[in-house]
Specification:
Bound molecules: nicotinamide-adenine-dinucleotide
Largest sheet: 8 strands, mixed
Helix content: 40-55%
CATH class of the largest domain: Alpha Beta
Number of helices: 14
Shape: globular
Strand order of the largest sheet: 3-2-1-4-5-6-7-8
Length: 318
């Protein structure tokens, strides 16, 4: 409803810029891919069109979505020309703060005061990037994951002085584009990378300590909690498993492995209050009894469907 009335300029026509362009244009937005010169921008545009045709041929996209990308996507080798008429400008250039600062300054010099500016940075604090702008209130992080065309999640990251109305606006547009956005704080690694890197560090430590090899760890993660995580987040899993079970497990781990496995204070407090998750009518997600019952009832069906999908994909996905 709103996307087809929205024009978006994407500065940086590389891997992520192209993916973001496909996502937005297939949902009806008009997008201009901009790069440092016409050759790069045209190449980036050509790559999106070729990928889109391939995705339609493989059945990842409908023919209508493919046509929408081709109709709605253009390119420009000039920042000043490319941003004309844009409601939102996405900065998707190299992950270097000085390059991003220069590009953000250049963008602000050629757009009107009411144009929203978003960055797809992976790890640079949004507040640090905002320092380049004279109107930082129109700026926020909108972090797509790779490949943007297929991964549903998007982190929407306001910094300290972002206009409070902006995150909800971006969430609405991203939801309309079929994404699953969540507003998260401007903290190091945001949500995804902080959790992903915490897991990798512990996995690497197990390899370094000789407890299991990379192949064994990958097998167990894919086939145990990683299997669950394809459908449920860590809080849904904990609420279903039982918070008392989690607290006891942390106590054993802390005894053997030390302080990094101390029971999280919020978990200890819940268990002390008798909140054991769904089984006691509580839990981190605060689901009603009916919602919790529905989630548990849906779980086994979801897991059996996921097991079937894994079997179908066997040999190609792992
Ligand atoms: N690749 C990933 O897995 C991934 C995932 C999430 C976020 N990101 C983030 O997305 C951003 C882009 O990453 P990428 O993988 O698409 O990089 P990329 O190297 O594929 O593309 C960057 C593009 O920016 C262009 N560019 C550089 N300076 C420019 C300027 N001044 N004006 C216009 N265009 C300019 C380059 O020519 C290039 O086409 C980075 O901030 C990265 O951290 C990447």
């Amino acid at each position: 409803m709103q996307l087809d009335a929205t024009t978006i300029a994407i500065v940086g026509s590389g891997y992520m810029g192209g993916g973001i362009a496909q996502v937005l244009t297939r949902a009806g937005a008009r997008c201009v891919l901009i790069d440092t010169d016409a050759t790069r921008a045209e190449t980036g545009h050509g790559r999106v069109i070729a990928d889109t045709r391939d995705h339609v041929a493989r059945g990842y996209l409908t023919a209508e979505q493919g046509q929408a990308v081709e109709a709605n996507l253009t390119w420009s080798g000039s920042l000043a020309d490319g941003v004309q008429g844009a409601d939102i400008v996405f900065e998707v250039v190299f992950e270097q703060i000085d390059v991003k600062h220069a590009v953000l300054r250049d963008i602000e010099a050629v757009v009107g005061d009411d144009v929203v500016i978003a960055t797809n940075t992976s790890a640079i604090p949004i507040g640090d990037l905002a320092e380049a702008l004279t109107r930082p209130e129109r700026f926020l992080g909108v972090h797509f994951f790779n490949p943007a065309t297929l991964l549903p999640g998007v982190e929407v990251i306001p910094h300290a002085t972002t206009d409070p109305a902006l995150p909800a606006h971006l969430v609405e547009l991203l939801t309309e584009a079929g994404k699953e956005p969540a507003v998260v704080a401007d903290t190091p690694g945001f949500v995804c990378n902080r959790l992903q890197f915490a897991l990798f560090k512990e996995a690497a430590r197990m390899v370094e300590d000789g407890h299991a090899g990379p192949e064994q760890i990958d097998t167990i993660v894919r086939a145990s909690f990683g299997f669950r995580l394809a459908l449920y987040g860590p809080f849904a899993v904990a609420d279903m498993a039982g918070l008392d079970v989690y607290a006891s497990s942390y106590t054993s781990l802390e005894r053997a492995l030390g302080e990094r496995f101390t029971v999280p204070p919020s978990l200890a407090a819940r268990v002390a209050d008798g909140d054991l998750g769904i089984k006691s009518g509580g839990g981190y997600l605060g689901l009603s009894e009916a919602e919790a019952t529905a989630m548990v009832a849906a779980r086994d069906h979801a897991y059996s469907e996921l097991a079937r999908l894994r079997a179908d994909l066997d040999g190609t996905a792992s």
